[in-house]
């Protein structure tokens, strides 16, 4: 039974965002594939994976299956929302151990709050 995450709603918004002009700009500008593993409480436990594919412009639940993502991030649910909404700087989060990153660091650096639609209300 998958846990309900607060991040689920953001990923839903992200799916819609990908079909907008702003979303299409992102795919042009970034052209990378990210896998995001979100844990309810503790990184590495009961994680739910999402793929944010900024090559094809899609967001889907589950691990990436076409080879390897450019970068993989692991967050807790709360920290992911903080980073995505711009409340927490990704670099600082990384230094504090709030984000684990695998894959290309240059790809990881392009993963910024600008990717995400601005939350109307959290």
TrEMBL record:
<feature type="domain" description="SCP2">
    <location>
        <begin position="17"/>
        <end position="112"/>
    </location>
</feature>
<dbReference type="GO" id="GO:0005829">
    <property type="term" value="C:cytosol"/>
</dbReference>
<dbReference type="Pfam" id="PF02036">
    <property type="entry name" value="SCP2"/>
</dbReference>
<protein>
    <recommendedName>
        <fullName>SCP2 domain-containing protein</fullName>
    </recommendedName>
</protein>
<dbReference type="InterPro" id="IPR003033">
    <property type="entry name" value="SCP2_sterol-bd_dom"/>
</dbReference>
